[in-house]
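name: query_chain
kind: protein
chains: 1
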Amino acid sequence: MVRVDKRFCIGCGICAQVCPTQAITILFRTAEIDESRCIDCKTCISVCPRGAIKEERKVNIPEIKERLKNLQRRIEELSMRLGRLEAKR
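structure:
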């Protein structure tokens, strides 16, 4: 899904003009995205001159934990290698 960062949106309407499903409207000088119409094509992201529209990624906690575990293992491996290299000096 995409979202509008209202701090950067100036309501220029370019995103609304290119949206193939008319999911974007400009209200009070800010783009609003109708999630029920949005097909997540991300065209709006590529045309926004202010970078106000961003992809919103869902957080996958189990995946993050697994990646962290793998990084910790890698750090331990590198630390052991470094210890062996220092011992050879």
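note: DSSP finds three helices and four strands in the chain.
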